[in-house]
Predict the 3D structure of the following.
Amino acid sequence: MKLSIVLSTQPASFNAVAYKGEIKENLDKIKNLHYDGVELAVRDPELLDLSDLMGLLEQVNLPVPAIGTGQAYGEEGLSFTNADINIRIRATDRIKSQIKLARKLNAIVIIGLIRGRSQPGISYSRSETWLIEAIRECAIEDANVKLAIEPINRYETDLINTVNSGMQLLDKIAKDNVGLLLDTFHMNIEEPSTLASIQSAKDRMFHFHVADSNRWYPGAGHIDFGEIFELLYKINY
């Protein structure tokens, strides 16, 4: 098991990001902290100087295990379930752009808040249908790039809050390159048993996020990370 930390490549208002701002300086900090890799939060790949970014990553010898996409929702309001079809199309196109970036970086693409949430006057069923259609369309863009759907707590979205609902969605999408990202912060809110949920999803888990109950670093809240990491090792994550 290898450890990475999140770095935002572009300005973002979202506070739960470990590093954002000057990329080179932060990559050096992350390397000096002996992390094995760096998860990049990318709002829009088209705004990146990819050659420069890849050069900096090569200099510090840090692989990129995953690309976070939530800033497209947080900063621009793009989502798969917006009532406006043009916004849904833009959201899908944005993830396709992320997929191209992920292929170059050998990373997975995280499907977090880009899913959006059910809007007034739109049924959950309709929203879920839009969500499934969008993820399927993205999944076939490049079967070699994995997409990881993150169950997110009810206070941020009404779409896919639990590990079980995430697995049910995977069954409906039915694409081998679509799996789950589990996050201890969200599981602490939604899961009756974090350990049981990890165990149930072990064969469909592409990525794992670690944050304490207050969304700070492990040890700043009340989650028992000892038993969580013991289980992750046991299931060969």
In short: The beta strands are 4-8, 19-20, 37-41, 66-68, 108-111, 147-149, 178-183, 205-209. The chain has a mean pLDDT of 95.
